[in-house]
Structures are given as structure tokens and as C-alpha cells.
Amino acid sequence: MNKCFFLILIASIVTVSCSKKGNPPAATVSPIAGKWHYLSDTTTEYSNGALTGVFNTNPGSFAFIQFNNDFTGTSLLTEGSGGDNNSYVGKFTYKLSGNTLIITYPAQEIGGERFATTIDTGVIKSNTDNELYIQYNINFGYNGAAIHYLENQHLAK
Fold it and tell me: How far apart are CA 69 and CA 157, in angstroms?
């Protein structure tokens, strides 16, 4: 009787210890993952509430921004024309909360220039398979003035 009980106990332990564990959680997939090319980038600038300028960045100035599924990314900025082109690659991490996008560029050297940590917060206005619209509201002080930038980016895969 003891042998039979002992064999049942061993069989139970083996069965329990060999059972499959729960499925690992599914990997998070970023809804903006992919390589996006700039179609337009328009910045409206205000100083102390007064409009001071509207700037349309040449789409060729920004080669692309890459959002990876692991919430890291790379942006490539190209300046100049002809043989004077300079390209700068910036690495970043990003977070999404609803339609709010937060991009953090850590302190890094880009194109021989040292940049401090930068955090950009934007709102995804539209996201389809092939087009992405992001709007950034950027506020900072400069020489005693309250500066506000409203930046609108239109990107395509």
C-alpha cells in the first residue's frame, strides 16, 4: 500500500512539474512603428502671444523618423544642398498614451555638436497605414519673452 501511495505521489509531482506554464504576455506593438518620411513640417512661432513667424521646413531637410516596436527610434536630419549636405542621426525613446506622443532624446552628440536631453510632447492628430500627422506645442522662455511654437508634421511611409 505504501509503495502504491509513493508511486502515485511521484507521478503527481512529475505531472505538476512538467505542466506548461502560462503563456507569456503578447509583445506590445506600437501603432506608429515604422519608417516615416517628412512630407511637410510647419512651425508657427509666437512671442508673448504675438505671431512672429511661420516656418515651412523643406521636406528634404528631414530624411526620416523611425519608430521601433520596442519604443526606441532614430531620426535623420539632412541639411544643405548639393555637395554641402550634412546628415545628423539622433537616437530617442518614446511613449504613447492614447494619442499623446512623448519623445525623449537623451544627451548626445549629433554632427559634432553636443545636445542636452530634450523631451518633445505631441498629439497624434491622425494615423493611418501610410500617413501620420503629429502636432507639437512647445513653450519656453527666451530673453525674457514667452515663446510658443505650434509645429505640425505630416509624414508618410
Answer: 15
Q: What's the rounded Cα separation, in Å, for the pair 79 and 85?
A: 5
For the chain, list residues with pLDDT below 70: 1-27, 59-62, 79-86, 111
How far apart CA 90 and CA 108 sit, in angstroms, is 8
- Long-range CB contacts (< 8 A, 24+ apart) of 74-79? 77/110
Using DSSP's 3-state secondary structure scheme, residue 117 falls into coil
Give the per-residue pLDDT at 62. Answer: 63
Mapped onto helix, strand or coil, the DSSP state of residue 84 is: helix
pLDDT at 76: 86
C-alpha grid cell, residue 78: 539632412
- Alpha-carbon torsion (34, 38, 40, 43), positive or negative: positive
Whole-number pLDDT of residue 14: 39
pLDDT in tens, 38-55: 888 899 999 999 999 999
**CB-CB contact of 65 with 84 (8 Å):** no
Question: What is the distance in angstroms between the CA of the first residue and the CA of the last residue of the chain?
Answer: 72
| CATH code at 35-156 | 2.40.128
